[in-house]
Design brief:
The complex is a heterodimer of chains A (374) and B (196). By secondary structure, chain A is mostly helical. Helix content of chain A is 66%, strand content 0%. Chain B has a domain of 111 residues: Alpha-Beta Plaits (2-Layer Sandwich). Chain B has 6 helices and 8 strands. Chain B is elongated. Classes of the chains: A mainly alpha (374), B alpha+beta (196). The interface between A and B is medium-sized, with 15 and 17 residues.
Chain lengths: 374, 196
């Protein structure tokens, strides 16, 4: 009985907090995007426009639910559900604070990525079942993109798992918490491989959640919202919910893996509630996502795939070597050891990165041959 | 350096974010129902009828000549002439409209009516908040609704109104002078006739 109660409490807590987080993020994102483009953003509904999500939800609910005549009706109906459910499930293994983890799985990271990859299937289901060329192109792009970026996403977490010696997210957080007296906590982001890993992870997760500048699958101007083309009303809202929740889950994972989870930056700041520290880090990363979205234009598909396979994946592999180098040099004992180790590790990742970027930049695609449209 | 362009762009957006809070001049949005831009002098929406003096119907410049009705491309003007004449600003007796209707749902804001009117009686307005829930009656403006004073016209189109008013003043002066001359001539001939 108490197990059931615990489960219900955990589910209600996660759904309540991240559901309202979704509502809040949609309006704050629009306001920030507006400000970053010298506009006001939504400011009509409620104080400062904060009730905008309520208006949006009402609008979505009362819209007509259109299913195309020749669509595969069952798949068309199931796709938004299949997109949202796994994302909710992935929240189960994330530790949001001290003892604030729904299920402490031994293979938490594995579970997270395994369940998260089900969303690709949902996106393709949506594109295929819609019987629409734009939807199918969007879904094809989504599959190509998500599979390409799944690789660097997982690879960038490997050093963390190797050095923590566990796939359990709680163990990973615990490994980042044992501070030297008065100094910084041992967050993974305070090491060269951790910093590089965090950046690689953030780039890959931007692509994984279809956010700008990697939002090709739903490029509004090219393929009229891609796999979302034939969706309206609440199914459309579910897709949006799934996408934002996916971003939240990946952000929470980034905080857990690289930014010390719910630990405070300094040991003497541990008096503040652990979930508050988590929330602060979480919100900062979400802000970075919004900031990037306001700044960068959309990539082309070949640029996108080249960027993943020829830049991110090699750098993720290089990052493993950097992590090894950082461990190997741990025994260096001299006053200048730490800057030297940083310099050594930074060179190990920065030089290949520079070379790869140089090669990528030199590759100009050949002039396009049009076979049918002359 | 690799990524320098991205960092430059990120700094630009961050400056916009911070700048838009302390420098309202960056925000170009005009929040419409509360804020409005001053109307542009040459803006035009639908026509209106100009009147002089205090009484709109008595001072209406329109002489029901129906040139505008005939010229109107979408045929949105409907005029019925009155049998009773009234004096215009020169003291000449002129016809007046009994009915003058404009269907503003048909009007295409071309301004041809205002261009062809020889009496400066119809001019283009700048009102634009004309939405109504009555689709037919609410969009059919009769002459009481269309009549607006000359001061209003002068406020909207300063340059054009200045020219119009000067010309009309001039016409009036000439007409008065001619009338005076005619009166003097008549008086003289009357005197001559009675002299012998």
């Amino acid at each position: 009985m108490s197990g059931l109660l615990k489960a219900v409490l955990a589910i209600a807590g996660i759904m309540g907090v991240f559901g309202s987080c979704f509502a809040l993020t949609t309006v704050i994102e629009r306001k920030l995007l507006g400000r970053m483009q010298n506009r006001y953003g939504p400011n009509r509904v409620g104080p400062c426009g904060l009730l905008q999500p309520v208006a949006d939800a009402l609008k979505m609910l009362i819209k007509e639910d259109i299913v195309p005549h020749s669509a595969d009706k069952l798949l068309h109906f199931l796709a938004p559900l299949l997109l949202t459910v796994p994302v909710w499930l992935s929240f189960a293994v994330l530790p949001f604070g001290r003892n604030l983890c729904a299920i402490d799985l031994d293979a938490g990271v594995l579970f997270f990525f395994a369940i998260g990859s089900a969303t690709e299937l949902a996106v393709f289901m949506a594109g295929w079942s819609s019987q629409n060329k734009y939807s199918l192109i969007g879904a094809m792009r989504a599959i190509a993109q998500m599979i390409s970026y799944e690789v660097p996403l997982v690879l960038s977490t490997v050093p963390v798992i190797m050095l923590a010696g566990s796939l359990s997210l709680n163990a990973i957080v615990a490994a980042q918490g044992t501070a030297t007296a008065g100094g910084l906590e041992r967050w993974n982001a305070f090491t060269p491989w951790g910093l590089a890993g965090l950046l690689l992870f953030l780039i890959a997760s931007t692509a994984e959640t279809n956010r700008s500048p990697f939002d090709l699958p739903e490029g509004e101007s090219e393929i009229i919202a891609g796999f979302l083309t034939e969706y309206s009303g609440f199914k459309y809202a579910l897709f949006f919910l799934g996408e934002y929740l996916g971003m939240f889950a990946l952000t929470a994972l980034a905080v857990t893996l690289f930014l010390g989870g719910w630990h405070a930056p300094f040991a003497w700041l541990e008096w503040a509630p652990s979930w508050l520290w988590f929330a602060v880090k979480f919100a900062s990363l979400i802000f970075v996502f919004i900031w990037v979205r306001a700044t960068l234009p959309r990539l082309r598909l070949d640029q996108l795939l080249n960027f993943s396979w020829r830049f991110l994946v090699p750098l993720c592999l290089m990052n493993l070597i950097v992590a090894a180098a950082w461990c190997w040099t741990a025994s260096w004992a001299s006053p200048a050891a730490i800057p030297l180790r940083w310099l050594f590790c930074a060179a190990l990742i920065a030089l290949p990165g520079h070379g790869l970027a140089h090669v990528l930049r030199g590759q100009v695609p050949p002039p396009r041959q049009y076979h049918y449209a002359e | 350096m690799n990524g320098a362009g991205i960092i430059k762009g990120m700094i630009e957006t961050a400056r916009n974010l911070a700048g838009s809070y302390y420098d309202p001049g960056r925000l170009t949005t005009v929040q419409y129902p509360e804020e409005k831009l001053p109307p542009v002098e040459n803006a035009r929406t639908i026509p209106f009828l100009v009147y002089d003096g205090a009484d709109p119907m008595a001072g209406l410049r329109c002489t029901a000549c129906t040139i505008c009705e005939k010229e109107c491309p979408p045929q949105c003007i409907y005029i019925v002439k009155d049998q009773v004449k009234k004096p215009d600003y020169l003291g000449k007796m002129q016809l007046q409209p009994k009915v003058f209707d404009i269907d503003i749902s048909v009007c295409m804001s071309c301004g041809i009516c205002a261009e062809v009117c020889p009496f400066d009686a119809i001019k283009m307005d700048q009102v634009f908040e004309l939405s109504t829930d009555d689709r037919f009656g609410g969009l059919l403006f009769d002459k009481t609704k269309l009549a607006k004073p000359n001061d209003y016209f002068a406020k909207l189109h300063r340059t054009e109104a200045g020219e119009t008013d000067a010309r009309r003043e001039d016409d009036k002066r000439k007409a008065e002078a001619a009338a005076a001359a005619r009166a003097a001539a008549a008086k003289e001939s009357a005197l001559e006739g009675s002299a012998p």
